[in-house]
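Have a close read of the entry that follows and walk me through the local backbone shapes. See right below:
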Amino acid sequence: MSNHSLTSEPDTIEQLTASALRLAVFVLDDSAKQSSAKLPATDPLVNQPLAELLAQAERLNLAESIAGQTQHLASILLAAKSKPQLITLTHPAASNSERQVLIAPALMAAKLHCHAHALITGISTGISSGNEDASSVQAALKHAKREHISPVSFLIEAVPSSSAEQELLSNHITGIAKISELFTKRALPKANAKIASAKPANAKTAIELTQQDLTQSEQLSYWYTPLHQQRVATLTLCGEQNLTLVMVQGSQLAKPEPLLSNQRIWLPVRAQDTAEMRQQLVSFVNELTNIKHTDDQSALLKLISCAIHNSVQNIEPSHQQQSKASAVIMANSVEQAISEIDAMLAVIDAPFSDKQASDYKTPAGSCFQTSETSMPQNDLCFVYPGVGTVYPEMFSEFGRYFPALYSELEAEGDLGQMLQADLLDSCAKDKKKAADVSQMALKELAIAGGGASFMLTRLLQRVFNITPNYAMGYSMGEAAMWASLGVWHKPHSLVAATDHSSIFNHDISGELNCVRQTWQLGDHDTINWNSFVVRATEQEIQGAIDALAQQKNHAQAQQLDQNRVYIAIVQGDTCVIAGCEHSCKQVLKQLGKRGIAANRVTAMHTAPAMLIRDQLKDFYQLPISKGANATQQCQQTQFISAASEQFVALNENAIAASVADTMCQPLDFTKLVDKAHRLGARLFVEVGADRQTSTLVDKILTANSEQATNSEQATEPEQARAKGLLTQSEQARAKGLAIATNTKAGDDITSLLKCLAQLFCHQVPMSLDYLMDGLESQLQQLTCNAEPLKIHTNSSTAITEPTAVTLKGAQV
């Protein structure tokens, strides 16, 4: 039989296209080779009422080749319009594992409240020409009434005519299953996936489905889609006559990948003192040693779960004494976990460990604090970075770990636009462009940076229930602060507003109209603008500018005055100068310093920016969320601005004026950090991409601490107290601490867990439910029908069974 007859049956296709097509697709994996009539216990659809659909389904097993029972895809789809069809085929990753695809009438599935993986909504055929057939794609989109959509196009190459008919049909059904699973994961193959040479017209991209398993997490990136638009794909089955299907995402969302696993260990500990802490750590070593010599994959997961449970129990109101010591062990293996504990025990056992324990943390993320070294309560400050911190493949892992959060954000606004995902993705695909992120326009950097902060804030607040006591922003980060913390009513409106605003396109960037007006330049005069980071004080830089002016005659001085150099930002031991590139380089030469060029066109924090201060105030005059003053979050959080000595009031005018003044006036970030510290902030958590701002905060805190330290040094804590001095741990506590939630140099999840570990050790209130849920999901898969999980108590080595392990709403 020819490929033509395998991929399409003219009469059947005509019947399918004669009316609307809407079929629901469900993918059921059964690694245990359970009965095809029974839904696998570990399948994400286990709680859905699929029993009735399965009971009515006709069954076709493609793993068994039976003579005279050849089926064609078109005929299966036609049959599925009236009756569910359950197709069983061999799982491509394992010959002894089965995959089942259930195709049913969409209306029937909806009435039963079943959440489909995907919907098949259109079909068409066309004459093939080198595996390319734009006409069949366009005809299928027309049948699906989605001609206006630019879908992602998937292709399955033509199979040699000698191939078995069942194998060909199996490839087609497997292709449907793969795309359906990509829909549930809201993901697409990364740039290194094999791209088809032929790209049908009207398609965003063309991806060839080969035998490789494209559903593996490490091969996927998030599939962004415009607001209120479903993901749409076309699947073209190539042959002598191509067959194209239109597939639309269903309502089923994939289960989140667990944050913790046997390869990502996070062991928290609470204790009354260092002696009890040592006892628990030694107990961990013993248990980990036993686990290392067993093949039980669930043993380590149970240990992590028990540790989290105990850490929650230790600070519940019913617990008589507050924990005075906290630690978290982070590792990628049992062996590394043991090494991390040994290193921590060495610090605890040291004769004089005050300095080491005051801020103990390892590169792996393990950390330790006592009540003398942990920060006081109600001292958490979210710090929002400015523009220029985003990078290619930013947050590329978050989608599969927090699918519900991403779905929530997509329902509120255009998530891809908010993160400038397409632009950053193009940089990631082209290594030559990867270094050109700094060349992104100011508006693009502002949108992406604000979007990154918005997402991380939602993650910390909605997933881990962490609310700051204070909040502040670096430069444009102040606007991100108000948008992210739920003060502004419709923060997503800022994306389009910023994209089209003359302020960010022409006035303080682009043509730099405000600079032209200040310097009295014409429209066609060239401005070579740049900014440089230089390790020098504000006074040194101003001295260099003044010295240059004195060295020149009156005419030259006027020329220097025209080609302005501005001290835009003061940030610890460095400053940012901006203005005419030639004049900036003259100042650097006078200083005898080398500056790091930002190569970014922005006149923020310079005198010309003051010309548009009122326009900026109007731009940020946004409605306040209803009840913003009454919500627990806003009641708990005090907002700090570089433009005000006091907390900013929660009203439209005060907020707009604060943001405008911060962006136009020179920024003294050192004073802003000092102000936040004076007002009570001690834990400064950067909520944004990378860790540039937390590095600055740490340097400022360290410099201030060194200046405040008494010149008379003490070698022992007792000696310090006898002389009325602060011990080293008390100095560290008074100094404060800067923590990053994300770093470009590490993976997203590890960076996040390191941040959570430090917050845990400083006893910041948070929920660990999400960590527990992921562990329980894995344990259910590994230990179905096993004995209930048992918990080790801290008081003894006895084992007791808890009344509940889930700990919904538990606060840490």
User: Anything to note?
Assistant: The first helix runs from residue 3 to 7. Residues 511-600 form a domain with the Alpha-Beta Plaits fold (CATH 3.30.70.250). The first strand starts at residue 23 and ends at 30. Confidence is low (pLDDT under 50) at residues 1-8, 31-47, 92-96, 785-812.
